[in-house]
Amino acid sequence: MVRYVIAGILLLALAGAFIRRRLDMRRLDRLSGGMENYLTGHGGRLPLSLKEDRIARVENAAAEMQNRIEVAEERYRLEAGRTSNLTADISHQLKTPLASLRLFCEMDSSPHCEQQISQIERMETLISSLLRLEKLCADGYEFIFESCDIRRLIELAWQQLQPLWPDRTLVLDGEATIRCDEKWLSEAFRNLMKNACEHTTEDGMIFITLEQTDRTLHCTVEDDGGGAKPKDLPHLFERFYRAEGQSPQGAGLGLAIVKEIIFRHHGHITAENGARGLKFTISLPLMDLVSK
Question: Is the model's pLDDT at 222 over the cut of 90?
């Protein structure tokens, strides 16, 4: 009789432990789902727990993490707003004296007038690109994400560039349709193709390959210019960085702007030397991106 009582107690204990484990697993599943929804922008507040078990500590830690993230995001938005306003003020203050300086140079009969205007134009380009990059980094532009045919986007961007490099050839392979900001992503591809044209010979070729999976767009942009030196590769996306032998006419900001545009699309870009020349690899997620 005692054996049956002990066995019954053990069975009840095991059943209680099993039920408790199932309940704990459900709590963890709810917490995991809530955190995933929050990270993808579809969730609300994570609840605090009044219990005093281990899972409650995890639940409360997750809620505290959410609170700290939202506080940090609000601080970032305020700082980005201040930076954007400062950028706009600087842009306005610089345009007027530069325009006046250009006017005086054009009225001057100095033998160096042409060189002076050329340097002013270079300064205007540099300031414009730098302020554009800073405003991008500060979330100063609104990105509007809509469905876009990437092949068509690249073809249109190439049509704008080809008159400047009529001897270059673009080889475009693949199809892709994603949600993106067409204007900004077009600028990114235009900068990449411009960079490729500048690093190839007169009969140079640019190869762009598009490959779309269920979750990601993979894109490569490669030229046949022989590639960059290994010491230059880690610095290509840095602002004002000039690789050895690069033309001094550029502002040195094109690739930095490309990286920021890709980042604003929740993507990633890398540079390496491929079989033919410098190769950029872009990965963009296929998701319903929420415009800012």
Answer: yes
